[in-house]
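Quick entry between incubations.
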Amino acid sequence: MDHSRAPVLDALAAFRHRGDVVYGPPGHRQGRGVDSRTLTILGEGVFSSDVLMLNGLDDRRQSEGVLEDAQSLMADAVGAEHAFFSTCGSSLSVKSAMLAVAGPGEKLLISRNAHKSVISGVIVNGTVPIWVHPKFDAGRHLAHPPEPADVRRALEAHPDAKGMLLITPTDWGSCADVRGVAAVCHEFDVPLIVDEAWGAHLPFHDQLPAWGMNADADLVVTSVHKMGGAIEQSSVFHLQGGRVDPTVLKQREDLLGTTSASSLVYASLDGWRRHMVEHGHELMARTIGLAQDARSRLGALDGISVMGAEVVDEGYAHETDPLVLTIDVRGLGITGYQAAELARTRHHVDFGAADSFRLNARLTHADDQTSVDVLVSTVEALRVDARGLGPSGSVDLPDQHGLELETAMRPRDAFFAAAEQVDASEAVGRVAAELVTPYPPGVPVLTPGEVITAQAVEYLQTGVKAGMLIAESADTTMGSFRVVASDAVRS
Ligand SMILES: Cc1ncc(COP(=O)(O)O)c(C=O)c1O
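Done. Structure below.
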């Protein structure tokens, strides 16, 4: 295919060239109706590029096939049979992917270290989740994705499961054996969905971890805005093989998706694909080199350790993403939360995820020696900033199986059941009616339907005292929990 073309960008250029006068949305009329103070900050380009697909970039019947063309080029670029652009982030794409494999009331194996958008999908879609627990790394207190043997056991126990959803890479850069899990799923003739939200860069260099489409997954979801170069909310589904029907996927996605997709998202996805086909390999090679440099310079600092290949072992990670720098700051006597806040307030440097042990920095093709130098000098400065502070709190971390909670009700039933807000001391033993999610990384500690334990409550309460952010619970202080009313509990 001719990858020098970019159908959405080309259609946008043609739209501007023709000078079309539009009487449909968007009402700002390509920026003419936007207040000058807004334009000063956002820039005119944002509005002049905000054009509907229908009767805008394409005609009423979409007969020019602008979007189809751009999606086919994307599929070709990353080795998929089909690619579908989505403009509501992977938060929506994972729900659509799950719905394409398991309808309401059907079983789906799901790695329990799933992002909250997956758990929301379980609730919205009415999926019956069969949790496959990740590998808990007690020393580092983080979870690595489940292994093929774990998936085999779950499929043997639930032969009626419709498929498996795997999350890789994790927020901390730990990666699954996608090929091994796909082989097990295919033995049972069910599809493997991979939530590769953090993996948009993976197709473009063979020294990066396995890209789902190359490792036999059936359906892969990516957030191109995370590790790639498209704007926020840009997500793509990739599909191959005959286990998931593309029409079913498209129609189920249509149930959830917007009818007013953003041309900015489509155009930036289109541009990213062309950029990567033409220069992806060299850009990724350069970024891998920069990350190696950063890793060794950070690792040489007293009090700092950077997670790396030592976690690749049976029962731990299958591989790691070299572009993710997971920086353990325990040796500085502060928490990752404090380190992230010090970096932002004192040095104007914003890290990715942070927890009580560590914080992470991700390098992308957009980084360069200067941004690597800033990263290293910031962490050096944190060593000074941390002196005499002491940790912001001591988090009561759960033990090895402490977060494998008993499921008493289906998540959807628990979420929609009559509920009450009870004091934390009374919540133990009750069935959660809400998601309780430390963010980032956004993996829920409690999902609706799980029986709340004392360990989970202590972890959340001490975590919040130390700086953990709980975004969406009814009581984000963790002083009380929303639980299923006693007379509504049923299995
Ligand atoms: C593993 C995983 N899946 C899905 C999502 C949702 O992606 P998005 O932010 O594109 O909606 C995230 C977001 O952080 C994630 O970490």
